[in-house]
Amino acid sequence: MPKRNDIKSILIIGAGPIVIGQACEFDYSGAQACKALREEGYKVILVNSNPATIMTDPEMADVTYIEPISWQVVEKIIARERPDAILPTMGGQTALNCALDLSRHGVLEKYQVELIGASEDAIDKAEDRGRFKEAMAKIGLSCPLSFICHTLEESLEAQAKVGYPTLIRPSFTMGGSGGGIAYNREEFLAICERGFEASPTNELLIEQSVLGWKEYEMEVVRDRADNCIIICSIENFDPMGVHTGDSITVAPAQTLTDKEYQIMRNASIAVLREIGVDTGGSNVQFAINPDNGEMIVIEMNPRVSRSSALASKATGFPIAKIAAKLAVGYTLDELKNDITGGATPASFEPSIDYVVTKIPRFTFEKFPLADDRLTTQMKSVGEVMAMGRSLQESLQKALRGLETGLSGFDEQTTSEETIRHELGTPGPDRILYVADAFRIGLSRDDVFAISKIDPWFLAQIEDLVGEEQALRGRRIEDLAHGEMFRLKRKGFSDRRLALLLDTDQAGVRAKRWALDIRPVYKRVDTCAAEFATNTAYMYSTYEEECESRPTNNKKIMVLGGGPNRIGQGIEFDYCCVHAALALRESGFETIMVNCNPETVSTDYDTSDRLYFEPLTLEDVLEVCHVEKPFGVIVQYGGQTPLKLARALEAAGVPIIGTSPDMIDAAEDRERFQKLLQELALKQPPNRTARTPADAMRLAEEIGYPLVVRPSYVLGGRAMEIVHEPADLERYMREAVKVSNDSPVLLDRFLNDAIEVDVDCVSDGVNVVIGGIMQHIEQAGVHSGDSACSLPPYSLFPAVQDEIRRQTIAMARALNVVGLMNVQFAIQGDTIYVLEVNPRASRTVPFVSKVTSAPLAKIAARAMAGISLVEQGFTAEVIPPYYAVKEAVFPFIKFPGVDTILGPEMKSTGEVMGVGNSFAEAFVKSQLAAGDKLPRTGKVFMSVRAGDKNGCVEVARELQRLGFGVCATRGTAKVLSDAGLIVQVVNKVAEGRPHIVDLIKNGEIALVINTVDEKRQAIQDSHSIRRSALQARIPQSTTLAGAQALCVGLQLDDFGIYSLQELHARIKR
Amino acid sequence: MSTVPAILALADGTVFKGTAIGAVGHTVGEVVFNTAMTGYQEILTDPSYTKQIVTLTYPHIGNVGANSEDTESGAVFASGLIIRDLPLLHSNFRAEASLSDYLKANHTVAIADIDTRRLTRILREGGAQAGCIMAGEIDEARAIELARGFGSMAGQDLAQVVSCDAPYKWTTREWRLGEGYTEQGEARYHVVAYDFGVKHNILRMLAERGCRLTVVPAKTPAAEVLALNPHGVFLSNGPGDPEPCDYAITAIRDILATRTPVFGICLGHQLLGLAAGGKTSKMKFGHHGANHPVQDLDSGRVMITSQNHGFQVDETSLPANVRVTHRSLFDGTVQGIALTDRPAFSFQGHPEASPGPNDVAYLFDRFTAAMDAQD
């Protein structure tokens, strides 16, 4: 059946900001869908609030809306664009829920828009726990015993029937949000309460636990002729009980016989048919009783998912692209398998001849109060994937690709008590404790009994530990070829071997090279070598034959960013992709090295060649050895590749762009200070301390409050504002390990300063400003967590000009070739330079979307030697409209964690709002971030001493808009002294009813709560912010944010603007 | 841990060095690769692998050990096994022995720890070729010589070698989780199955569908078969070249003349093609896997099928009364035929799966329907 001609235009709904449970895999799928549908001649209209995505590049769709993803906004887009169809299966749960809302509110019917890819009924049947269970029963498949509940009473009755431990799963949520496992009544009540809040339909599934059963996933694709294929089977290393997004998973399934596998295959296809997924990809999850093979269906997702992104990367079969084409009517046999150059059709099942391991990446260190035990609610923020010709190899590659400093199975503890606890109550590092368990002599049976991890996996780790123990006390010189080769085949990194043999990485590498033991590269070809492929998608392994076949072309290699984590996310992948695209267009052969399966950069057709490898010195050097690139770009992938720059350069790898020495000059406080002095630029008073005593003395020199942080960090890790010596003392004791090699930086904190971000690009001769962004939150809030406006909304032109002058001076002084980001703080009339990063910054995609100048592409070409003049990019673009970037936070996933913003970055993603005024742009950014702005009601205010003056204006404005105001005693006094009517509310410590009671009772519409960056003050007000978050009441924790909110609340309505029409308004 | 060395020598002189994981000694055969990721025990016990050494492209083979249920015949028929890695431990609730012990018990020579992807690429580029696995005492030159002495599968009639010696009855039905194999109750049809190296799962699937089975040796004349008054005749899979099996071709012609429904699989399909007047030929490296797309030309539907054959029916050679019903979407070769003037049809791949997907199981129903139509 050929493609449909009755539809001409298709609206694709994106996934919005990166949040836990929904990361950049939906940029990958959405970008593929855009490409696939335009290739077929359809007009593609796109909506996605996330500017850091490749899919929102203006050339990806015909019409691109970076607008909030709510049914109301999407209705406006539909009314304006009148698409024939909506494809809701590419944007995760966000897009599916939006599509269901559009349907429920009659929008689809009103505008005669058809849902393609998944029908409303299919989505509902898969997501509605009750209907799903019924459907499974109908096709003879078992589900765990479970009951749908809408009240707590019903839940308790159900619990009595299923017993403890009990699983609680809210309907229609993503990543298991709000759910959990309860082992007792207290936990059960707590989880039910938050589950009801999380479910948009106030519905819970109270389910029998199958903890300890083996967990599997099948990725299935179906076309409208009912042809069904399995793309990939996945077996979880972590048995049932840990959310699959938080589980280590392996492809293909390892411990099923063919008979058992076929039962699962047939069942997954039956599930798709029964749910009614007519076309596209779905994922079905199963649990299997390890004792007798009994199989039950856990759930299915009627859309592309994180697992399908993983399956696509694991097999080379582009599920999203194919699913998009199936949605417009093609059948699988009409589509080609690209990876074999079209020699075979897409209607087959990939066969793989390697082992794929995915390990999730967590960032609990950012949220010290969060419970780091893994259950049914997803908590990881990213993942790494690795391939090898054995499980051991792929597992150890994945561990070192995690970017957590691991060299392999690094030792955690020798305490049996800790080990037993970690095995039985899994946290983020359980796999490492498995190795520790073997080190202290626990048996495989012991480890299995506690963890229920399949003995097949345990044996592999036990063997690795055995190999390690046999190496202890020996010397690298004693390793002969055979032994070294065997160890490398098992995936041991040079660094791990160095640790075991008490030498350094360079020593192991030298010995290995002397023995002529180098990795070979095998191709990912979907067919286990049955057909020839020219697609250069490769992974390293230690085998006999290398298939890399490098060319003699002029090549540029881009090093990616590794797994997503807070502080390093999709923005860097966006830059890497742009570098590859730009340089490919400019005639270079491009090579990508990365290990994050969620990304567009690891799509095999983004670059000419893709090496799916960990970003460690060893792995990158080996790729360089094979490819011999003309230049390597390290400044686009964030801290991960930057960290390698000096070592790569020392090993003779040609780094292009700003030199590693100049990068260091900007990062090294003392060198940087010297440079600023030469340029006569100001910095907040600062010092570098190398001992705790040093720190105390130097602090007195510059005065409190101080911003303190370790050097060389991204995302403000372990950064704090300290107000007094006692705080500093505690910080030096608890938060950092200070030493000569890793000093601690002390900066004078600037009160009430405005922070400004500037991105610029330079070719070494000319410097062009990309954009000046004014932060909304005051200095002190991490720039990644702060909202910002482009162009600035309240900076005088003279100040902006001075910022430009200073930026250009610094770019010149650092000989920047490529991108540079500067953060300034403006206090009164004084401009201070906070930091300079001569590399891609988090704001590059935002600036590029707003100004229409693709900064990352321009800078990549500049690095490759094409001047800005040659590129025609010689002047800053100042848009005739406003755009606001707002950060999105994962607080709701971490019960108990404070929502207050500070110098340590906590956001996982970002959204953008655009408008003709700052107010319009700001309001839209808040809506896009998920806040519902109140129109009426009562505002609660409690502000710190420094904000007492400013809060009067805010309160006055709110009253004028018709809001009532209540406040804590101190704030209330200031307001009533200023002549405002205000109700006094108790602080939590002042007795009941207090503010939290009011919030819980739904009496508060908006919370404005600012506190001094002092521990006690923060702790005292924590419950206010937390309860507001739980009740989904919008809150501002900065006065500047509140002021912006007031401006925004004056707006009655807002418009929608496509990126293409905005860009057309820019005067060149 | 003491390991026994082993080598694989190919007729082209390539030598791979690895570790023995089965019996000590040497074995010779045509080396073929199979891309199925599950079902190694079914593959080893499939009589169609007679005189073939099979390499499995998935690197970990042996994960689920071996058991007494997942067999397709009474013995290991593959001449040898070549894998990348034998796991340290098998893990499955049905496992009874490790793969290594199973291979030793069946006197199967096998090698691990070689670059099986490189081997697969050699076979893909140069076509299937003979090879020799030598385990224990190694003599490279001799291994190459042995490989070269093997010759070609073309012209080899192996069906009669592996066939049963005397007719027997079959009553076991399909495997079910938790029940294993059970015996059939009442049977509606009597089917005579020619054993050219039959896989048990074919018999199980026929029994499941109400067929009372009499399995007969390859060389049983048509008259003897017809004397049993069968409702239908089944032509099994099997090893080797179909062309020299003139006894079978003659018998099939005689049976077709009686309008008895005939169903053939794999070698049986090729023999039906030959009996109908077509020709067969040897393929470069054949089809061996569990992921091959085959299109049913009548419905347009695509099925994922299990495949294991080195010979094919040539489409251009088929007379007017033979219709192509199925086609491989990998290379366009004939995957199924039906006679337009007789109730006879056949399939090149393996509708009985084992290992592989069950997408084509409907052909067994088509066979019973054909027998129903005769009543």
From TrEMBL, chain A:
Residues 133-328, 673-864 form the ATP-grasp domain. Keywords: Amino-acid biosynthesis, Arginine biosynthesis, ATP-binding, Ligase, Magnesium, Manganese, Metal-binding, Nucleotide-binding, Pyrimidine biosynthesis, Repeat. CDD domains: MGS_CPS_II. ATP 2 binds at R709, R748, L750, E755, G780, V781, H782, S783, Q823, E835. Mn(2+) 2 binds at E299, N301. Residues 1-403 are annotated as: Carboxyphosphate synthetic domain. It catalyses: hydrogencarbonate + L-glutamine + 2 ATP + H2O = carbamoyl phosphate + L-glutamate + 2 ADP + phosphate + 2 H(+); hydrogencarbonate + NH4(+) + 2 ATP = carbamoyl phosphate + 2 ADP + phosphate + 2 H(+). GO terms for biological process: 'de novo' UMP biosynthetic process; glutamine metabolic process; L-arginine biosynthetic process. Mn(2+) 3 binds at Q823, E835. Mg(2+) 3 binds at Q823, E835. Mg(2+) 2 binds at E299, N301. InterPro entries: ATP-grasp, CarbamoylP_synth_lsu_oligo_sf, CPAse_ATP-bd, CPSase_dom, CPSase_lsu, CPSase_lsu_oligo, CPSase_preATP-grasp, MGS-like_dom. Pathway: Amino-acid biosynthesis; L-arginine biosynthesis; carbamoyl phosphate from bicarbonate: step 1/1; Pyrimidine metabolism; UMP biosynthesis via de novo pathway; (S)-dihydroorotate from bicarbonate: step 1/3. Mn(2+) 1 binds at Q285, E299. ATP 1 binds at R129, R169, G175, G176, Q208, V210, E215, G241, V242, H243, Q285, E299. GO terms for molecular function: ATP binding; carbamoyl-phosphate synthase (ammonia) activity; carbamoyl-phosphate synthase (glutamine-hydrolyzing) activity; metal ion binding. It is an enzyme of class 6 (ligase). Mn(2+) 4 binds at E835, N837. Its EC number is 6.3.4.16, 6.3.5.5. Mg(2+) 4 binds at E835, N837. Mg(2+) 1 binds at Q285, E299. Composed of two chains; the small (or glutamine) chain promotes the hydrolysis of glutamine to ammonia, which is used by the large (or ammonia) chain to synthesize carbamoyl phosphate. Tetramer of heterodimers (alpha,beta)4. The large subunit is composed of 2 ATP-grasp domains that are involved in binding the 2 ATP molecules needed for carbamoyl phosphate synthesis. The N-terminal ATP-grasp domain (referred to as the carboxyphosphate synthetic component) catalyzes the ATP-dependent phosphorylation of hydrogencarbonate to carboxyphosphate and the subsequent nucleophilic attack by ammonia to form a carbamate intermediate. Belongs to the CarB family. This is Carbamoyl phosphate synthase large chain. It comes from Craterilacuibacter sinensis.
TrEMBL record, chain B:
Keywords: Amino-acid biosynthesis, Arginine biosynthesis, ATP-binding, Glutamine amidotransferase, Ligase, Nucleotide-binding, Pyrimidine biosynthesis. GO terms for biological process: 'de novo' pyrimidine nucleobase biosynthetic process; 'de novo' UMP biosynthetic process; glutamine metabolic process; L-arginine biosynthetic process. Its EC number is 6.3.5.5. L-glutamine binds at S48, G238, G240, L267, Q270, N308, G310, F311. The keyword Amino-acid biosynthesis applies. InterPro entries: Anth_synth/Amidotransfase, CarbamoylP_synth_ssu, CarbamoylP_synth_ssu_N, CarbP_synth_ssu_N_sf, Class_I_gatase-like, CPSase_GATase1, GATASE. GO terms for molecular function: ATP binding; carbamoyl-phosphate synthase (glutamine-hydrolyzing) activity. The active site is at C266 (nucleophile), H350, E352. Pfam families: CPSase_sm_chain, GATase. It catalyses: hydrogencarbonate + L-glutamine + 2 ATP + H2O = carbamoyl phosphate + L-glutamate + 2 ADP + phosphate + 2 H(+); L-glutamine + H2O = L-glutamate + NH4(+). Residues 1-189 are annotated as: CPSase. Small subunit of the glutamine-dependent carbamoyl phosphate synthetase (CPSase). CPSase catalyzes the formation of carbamoyl phosphate from the ammonia moiety of glutamine, carbonate, and phosphate donated by ATP, constituting the first step of 2 biosynthetic pathways, one leading to arginine and/or urea and the other to pyrimidine nucleotides. The small subunit (glutamine amidotransferase) binds and cleaves glutamine to supply the large subunit with the substrate ammonia. This is Carbamoyl phosphate synthase small chain.
